[in-house]
Amino acid sequence: MVLIMTDMHRQDALSCYGRVVRTPNLDSIAERGVRFTRCYVQSPACMPSRVTIMTGKYPHSHGVTRNIKGLSSCQMTFMDLLSQAGYHTAAVGKMHMMPKYGPFGFRYLDVVDGKRCARHPYNDNYTIYLEKIGKEGLERLPPGRIIYDAYTSPLRMEDYIDSYIGRKAVRYLKEARREPFFLWVSFAGPHFPFDPPAPYDRMYDPREVEPPQVDEVDLREKRRLHPEFAGLREEVLAPENLRRAIAHYYGCISLIDHWVGRILRALEEEGMEDRTIVVFTSDHGVLLGEHGLAWHGLKAMYEEQVRVPLLMCGPGIPSGTETDALVESLDLTVTFLEWAGVEKHPGMAGRSLIPIVRDGDSRGRRTVHCEGCVFEHPVRDEDEISLGTERRIMHLDGEWKYIYSDEEEYQELYNLKEDPEERENLAGRKGYSDLITKFKEDILKWLIETLQPPVGEVHPVEDFALHDASPHRMPEEERPPGLIYAEP
User: Fold this and answer.
1) pLDDT (tens digit, 9 = 90+) per residue, 333-349?
2) Which of 141, 260, 350, 354 could make an S-S bridge to 334, C-beta 3.0–4.6 Å?
3) Count of beta carbons in the 10 Å neighbourhood of residue 202
4) How far apart are CA 202 and CA 465, in angstroms?
């Protein structure tokens, strides 16, 4: 089994979902298998979303409710279960684990920290590789103001981070795999900075890219609801800057598509194409100017952020099929286990997608949920200061999307059938109070049914937060027996 994941990849940014971006290799997965049109992540942020897939639990149950937070050591991952069942479990690319060296059930690790959104150095296999070829520092965001973090990488295409990841994934398939195997390939892009190298920086003409139209009323309302975007500079939303950013975003995706083609070709060359299940998805999406918002909010749960591509092909999966069944990312967890013939852990909340894929059952879920990041912040109560949190939860029920917050001044309600662009917030309007009350009750029931308070030691955050000082692999004396770290 092979899981291919991207970072910050919205659903419509594939040609098989209708956008102008050119992705022939990813489209081939859909042509040979099934394309899901209504797959939702369980968090709009990287770490909570990825840990949800690892554990098959919602963020409030696995405990990683924001980025830069460690997973409880007692949590079981589906890689743990596959490894115990004899699978060679491998991770290549940006896993965004905490601690970053895992292992979380992986037996083979060749991981990187991700794209250099900040200007400080990292310490991982990719950094070591660039040092060896005399390109150290060229992967970092250059100094000065770069609107939307969109620019051309000075690196050659062959030395760009996603080329490095794609090449190492192919190497695993050809040189390091053991059977049966599960390979998780996690590309760093198209996450910002949107910095494709040549020739992908010129693949899309900004003049031919159509930026979203933003209604002033919608813009004011969304900024009020999402103060985390208060510092967004207006120049970012200028049409010429949006066009350039979107064109570079597409370029990053097309480069990844090239390496997906190389991975698929490696499976074919190794004689595994007809007996390997391949799944493609992303950890979350991104806002490219919609609602007057840019990049991604860690609490905003509009369609562009929480609806992601999901494609799969392989033995037993009918070719050229499409389903609008409502599914969640955490459903992948138990689906992989069922494909492997392994029992799921009792705490896993996912539902197998195999009946949908194999039998054409289009029922899916009745509701799906997503949780915004929960940040601790000081709250003063008379003479005492304690830590308070604001929780936001998306409850999607058929055509209705309700986003709850325990802050009284915030809530959102949209009818996705009549208002697919989520412009008209119906919360607070007359005639919807009974519906909102029902959705609040449904959310409470869901929380009670799925809550499993995490216990056990939490891995320290310093490993991820201090990139320049942290090791890129676990010390040898601490490694579980059989754990392999790939060389740069």
Assistant:
1) 999 999 999 999 988 99
2) 350
3) 13
4) 34
Spatial distance between the Cα atoms of 13 and 6, rounded to a whole number of angstroms: 12
Q: How far apart are the first and last CA of the chain?
A: 24
Q: How far apart are CA 5 and CA 50, in angstroms?
A: 10
Q: How far apart are CA 360 and CA 349, in angstroms?
A: 22
pTM assigned to the model: 0.93
For 109, the token pair is: 């690790």
User: Are 291 and 4 spatial neighbours (Cβ–Cβ below 8 Å)?
Assistant: no
Report the alpha-carbon angle 256-151-235, nearest 5: 120
Residue 123 in contact with residue 467, Cβ under 8 Å?
Answer: yes
Q: What is the structure's pLDDT at 66?
A: 78
Cα–Cα distance for residue pair 311/41, rounded to 1 Å: 14
Return the structure tokens found at 283: 């950890």
Is there a contact between 25 and 312 (Cβ–Cβ < 8 Å)?
no
Q: Which of the four pLDDT bands, split at 50, 70 and 90, describes residue 375? A: low
Q: Cα separations (Å) of 198 from 156, 189, 255, 479? A: 7, 15, 10, 40
Query: Which residue type, as a one-letter code, is found at position 4?
Result: I
Rg of the Cα trace of the chain? 22
Q: Find out whether 314 and 321 touch, Cβ atoms under 8 Å.
A: no
pLDDT band at 376 (very low <50, low <70, confident <90, very high): low
Reference 117, options 167, 166, 151; nearest CA is 151
Closest residue by Cα to residue 454 from 106, 70, 68 = 70
The 3-state secondary structure of the chain reads: CEEEEEECCCCCCCHHHCCCCCCHHHHHHHHHCEEEEEEECCCCCHHHHHHHHHHCCCHHHHCCCCCCCCCECCCCCHHHHHHHCCCEEEEEEECCCCCCCCCCCCCEEEEECCCECCCCCCCCHHHHHHHHCCCCCCCECCCCCCHHHECCCCCCHHHCHHHHHHHHHHHHHHHHCCCCEEEEEEEEEECCCECCCCCHHHCCCHHHCCCCCCCHHHHHHHHHHCHHHCCCCHHHHCHHHHHHHHHHHHHHHHHHHHHHHHHHHHHHHCCCHHHCCEEEEECCCCEECHHHCEECCCCCCCHHHHEEEEEEECCCCCCCEEECCCEECCHHHHHHHHHHCCCCCCCCCCCCCHHHHHHCCCCCCCEEEEECCCCCEEEEECCEEEEECCCEEEEEECCEEEEEECCCCCCEEEECCCCCCCCCCCCCCCCCHHHHHHHHHHHHHHHHHHCCCCCCCECCCHHHHCCCCCCCCCCHHHCCCCCEECCC
Contacts with 35 (C-beta within 8 Å, 6 or more apart), sequence order: 16, 17, 309, 310, 311, 321, 322, 323
